Amino acid sequence: GRMMFNMKEAAMATGATLRSSFLGFFVGVLPGAGATIASAIAYMTEKKISGSEQFGKGDIRGVAAPEAANNASACGSFIPMLTLGIPGSGTTAVMVGALTLYNITPGPAMFVEQPDIVWGLIAALLIGNVMLLVMNIPMINVFARMLSIPLWFLVPAIAAISAVGVYAVHSTTFDLLLMVGLGIFGYILRKMDFPMSPLILGFVLGEMLEQNLRRALSISNGNLVILWESPICKVLLVLAISVLVLPPIWKRWRRYRLRLAEE
């Protein structure tokens, strides 16, 4: 029946909170990434670092990590908006439109021409975080009671709202059938213990990948060399290959060392 965390739980979650805050901030700086990707990456990262089997079964770090990344990414998304005029999320896109209505163009010149707006926004973010803390702590009991909503009511309600939202986009029956098919496919993957976070990342980033690939090929008139001729591209490709290759090699190395230790 305890609603607040104790000092032991706070100390256990401190490292996860700090790591996820830095990770979420830098993910939020990337235009279009958003809080969903930051939360998923933070959760997967902490699960790998901790090696705990209790993530999703009561480990407080499984809550602290994605929430810290979520909050940090919201602040990080303001960086590309204020410095480059590029919205980093849906919220900042609305803010760019609002500033444009007042003939204010976000970008580097804004720090010189409109410093009161820039620093006022930064101060508002600080005050907003403090106000959220003050408001949410007394309401922990209310939020926790939401978990007592029975699944027989919650699942159909979510499915109905999702169906209405999917149908409202293109008003086609095919979208509803596709939603049902993907839901069944996701259920099968969950039963087979497939991690959901990589699928979410692929779903969110897939469209951005296709759009930017087409844009790059249009700029180079179809020349594929543009994909790896830049030094930054080469570094990113090496890192991506390392992420795919190094984990299996590390696992085999650990198994080999354990086998030698047993012998």
Order of helices and strands: HHHHHHHHHHHH
The helix content, as a percent range, equals over 70%
Rg, alpha carbons = 22 Å
Number of helices: 12
- Annotation, overall tally of beta strands: 0
- Structural category is mainly alpha
Strand content: under 5%
- Name the shape in a single word: globular
Low-confidence stretches: none
Biggest sheet details = none
Q: Overall pLDDT, averaged?
A: 81
Through-space gap between termini? 49 Å
Task: Give a nutshell description of this structure.
The protein is mostly helical.
Helices, strands, pairings?
Layout: H1 7-29, H2 34-50, H3 61-76, H4 78-84, H5 90-101, H6 110-113, H7 115-136, H8 140-145, H9 151-170, H10 173-191, H11 196-219, H12 231-262
Helix pairs in contact: 1-2, 1-3, 2-3, 2-11, 9-10
Report what the structure shows.
The structure is a single chain. The chain is an all-alpha fold. Helices cover 77% and strands 0% of the residues. It contains twelve helices and no strands.
Features of the shown structure:
263 residues, mainly alpha, globular
